[in-house]
Design a protein that fits this description.
By secondary structure, this protein is an alpha+beta fold. It contains seven helices and six strands; from the N terminus they run αββααβββααβαα. The chain has a single domain, classed as Endonuclease III, domain 1 (Orthogonal Bundle).
């Protein structure tokens, strides 16, 4: 692990998949089930990152004002789009397929103990990931988890409708 932190090239047999997003962020070692390779990522036409990447790579081309304002919070780092957070971390921006893998790993995998949506969002930011609809996606994912619904606490609802009690 110390050699990986210093970015020394390791032999092929002991390379672990490490996703680093910047100098100040926490590297996340997610070896089970999640393999995100920046070079093999194919961006579709509806990918939210595409207009930002195009603007950051070619700022002279005409673009919308909304994209120019959003681009102030983003940087291209090693040919990847990263977001500058408020606490000076660089968060790797994920596409649609990638963020589903990360949510699954954080919720059910090596990182997870089936946390709720807000905790999942906090963990993913701590691991160095970002996408615009992160909070809503995490909440919906945790609500839709079958194991969480099956083994979660049962809500106690009264069997009859509640009636109003008037104080004399």
């Amino acid at each position: 692990m110390a050699q990986i932190a210093t970015r020394v090239q390791l032999p092929e047999d002991c390379v672990q998949r490490i996703i680093q997003v910047g100098k100040k962020s926490l590297p996340s070692v997610l070896t089970r089930g999640i393999e995100i390779d920046a070079n093999s990522t194919i961006m579709s036409e509806e990918d939210w990152r595409l207009p930002l990447i195009n603007y950051l790579q070619y700022p002279a081309l005409p673009s919308e004002k909304r994209i120019r304002m959003m681009a102030l919070n983003y940087v291209m780092w090693n040919e990847e789009l990263v977001r500058k957070s408020k606490d000076e971390l660089l968060l790797r921006c994920l596409g649609n397929e990638e963020h589903m893998k990360v949510m699954g790993e954080v919720h059910e995998g090596i990182c997870g103990a089936h946390q709720g949506g807000r905790k999942m969002c906090w963990l993913m930011r701590r691991y160095g990931y970002f996408w615009p609809t992160m909070m809503n996606d995490c909440i919906e994912y945790s609500k839709g988890c079958e194991a969480c619904q099956r083994h979660g606490p049962i809500e106690q609802a009264p069997s009859v409708p509640m009636t109003l009690v008037v104080k004399p």
